Amino acid sequence: MLQITKTNRPSGAKDLLVLLSDPARLRELGLERNDRQYLLEQLKEERPVAVCDISGRLVLVHQVRGGEMPQQLEKARRAGNEMALKLAAAKREEAQVVSLQDNPAPTLALLEGAALGAYTFTRHKTGTQPRPLGKLALVAPEVKAADLEELTDLCQAVCTVRDLVNEPASHLSAVQLGEEAIKLGKSHGFGVKVLSRKQIEAERMGGLLAVNQGSIDPPAFIIMEWKPKGAVNKQPVVLVGKGVVYDTGGLSLKPTPNSMDAMKCDMAGAGAVIGAIAAAAKRKLPVHVVALAPCTDNRPGGRAFAPGDVLRMHSGLTVENLNSDAEGRLILADALSYAERHGAETIFTVATLTGAAARAIGTQGSVVMGTAPEAHFTRLHQAADHCFERLAPMPFWEEYGEELKSDIADLKNIGGALAGQITAGKFLQRFTTRPFIHLDIAGTAFLDKRDHYRPKGGTGVGVRLLYHYLKRRAAAQ
Fold first, then answer.
1. Is 154-475 assigned to CATH 1.10.3210.10?
2. What is the set of active-site residues?
3. Could you read off the pLDDT of 167-218 as tens digits, one per residue?
4. How far is C-alpha 449 from the geometric centre of its chain's CA atoms?
């Protein structure tokens, strides 16, 4: 990942990334008048980034303008991404950032956009690859070293999750995902336990076991905990992430063409909660956090569970399976029921759960719903505004639950043709008694084309959102 280090003075030889609010401060850079004027003309046009090539030395400038802070910060992130891409196109491996304004937030946002925008996934490419932008030297007196370190740690967590989401199922089984969580736990200081198939059977997790029946690989149930001394919460925040490492739809096989190409991303919810607890532990947030990730693939093998089957879940409830491609809610339901023993103050589910969520609002945000008190949702929306991982609240009326009534079991795993993102959330609600928030990241977890600093492929969505939620929870004594 891009390394960012503070320094006291700019270097006249390196490419220069500049952040300012007053264009008159360009004079402080010692540029020739013609070069300065060229940049000023671009800034008057309100370009996100003004560009000047001075005998091969790039000078890239972003002006912080008025407006609400979330939009200002997002513009700075996008400018940082554009700068990183221009440097990469010019085959630059390092550059310097100079801030000529006094607010640390836009500076950190620009660095965040550059760090996330510089991400590449080349693990499976052979031969010599172009060296990516690797280092930025920062001249910004307004930025504290601790804030820069926090930003670096958080971006690293996002990039780690992107790697996990981009890793194909041929290289990342449920068990291997558990092994990756163990490695992160050891390096970041949080506890990790991975339940084997026998232990999952002993827990009677009927949903997870059913989804796993068609696979030749065993399931895994990852249990992670960060419990620091002096935690502000007596009851933990519990994060539950869907970990379907590959989803064919099972016997309800997904239609072709191209419907399964990206289904390695169906564990992005598990990745998000792994990344969030790793970041919280690395930054030593004084918040007790438990993260759970039920993991398997979903394939139409010889013993695959079938439409019409009735499953007995971990909670004891019975579920009529009417669609084997609605498998994520089955494994999450077992995890929610398991989580009851933790007595969560708030429990989150994070999942690439429904195509309905993506169809409802596209790729620009995730849908959110649940039963938690309004104060919990307010904190989450504040976190979303800060990191610009936007959320679209869905109604969660009791009537949606009526669609899940089954003739032969306690409930069925799908509702009607409409509002599928909501009926999926209502299904999950049946398996927890705790204040509940559900995030459906189906539209935001994996993109088929780049969107600024969100790359094509895995985006790592949810890591920054949950981290900033936990950080705000730490401040709410």
1. no
2. 254, 329
3. 999 999 999 999 999 999 999 999 999 999 999 999 999 999 999 999 999 9
4. 17
